[in-house]
């Protein structure tokens, strides 16, 4: 793991956190809507702009078809999709389980003249029926995640508010597969899991096809990154 925030030092796994709760994010985006209306501030760019632009650079280099169908899961304020729309990508969908996040993203896009270029909608990404509804018949050519899996890994379980919801964590890669077209690509950025951990966690459903290099640090003779960005595709059936 790359970030000790919320982690259990004894077990090495993360404890449940407010960052995994829907009511927390509703409150955050309520405030960000107010801030946007008052000052035009679109809100926080998760993991920083440098990380976001590294993800976008990968898309520009690897997804040349600007009509490719692209989904940003847990889109928040819609920053990634705004950038893609400004570069000419035309088939963009942003989903979030927070109605307030969707409302913020819509308002920002409208203000920037991109209201008709991006579809924003509410989605429970852990509900197979909702995944199928958003994916449609053909699925997406590219699914993006910047921090959403991290939040799901902190979601409290119904039985024990201090424990993470393992069913939600297990459901996530299944939902990714259900969202992708047969040749679709999944690009994820995490600040809680290393590239190796992400590859291992998704191994039953997805196979890695590459990664993005971020700024590294050296500690105790080892070199690491504060975030990991990894590209996957559906595991090929033999």
Order of helices and strands: HHEHEHEHEHHEHEEEE
Mean pLDDT: 88
Total beta strands: 9
Assign an overall shape. Answer: globular
The main pleated sheet reads as:
7 strands, mixed
- The strand line-up of the biggest sheet is 3-2-1-4-5-9-6
H/I helix tally: 8
Describe, in plain words, how this protein is organized in 3D.
This protein has a 7-stranded mixed beta sheet, sandwiched between helices. The chain is of the alpha/beta class and 238 residues long. It is globular. A hairpin with a 2-residue loop joins strand 7 and strand 8.
Brief sketch in words of this structure:
This protein has 238 residues and is α/β, with parallel strands linked by helices. 37% of the residues lie in helices and 23% in strands.
SSE inventory with pairings:
Blueprint lengths: L21 H18 L8 H15 L7 E4 L5 H8 L5 E5 L2 H13 L6 E5 L5 H8 L4 E7 L1 H5 L13 H14 E11 L4 H7 L4 E7 L3 E4 L2 E4 L2 E7 L4
Parallel strand pairs: 1-2, 1-4, 2-3, 4-5
Antiparallel strand pairs: 5-9, 6-9, 7-8
List key phrases describing it.
alpha/beta, seven-stranded mixed sheet, single chain, globular, 238 residues, two-stranded antiparallel sheet, 8 helices
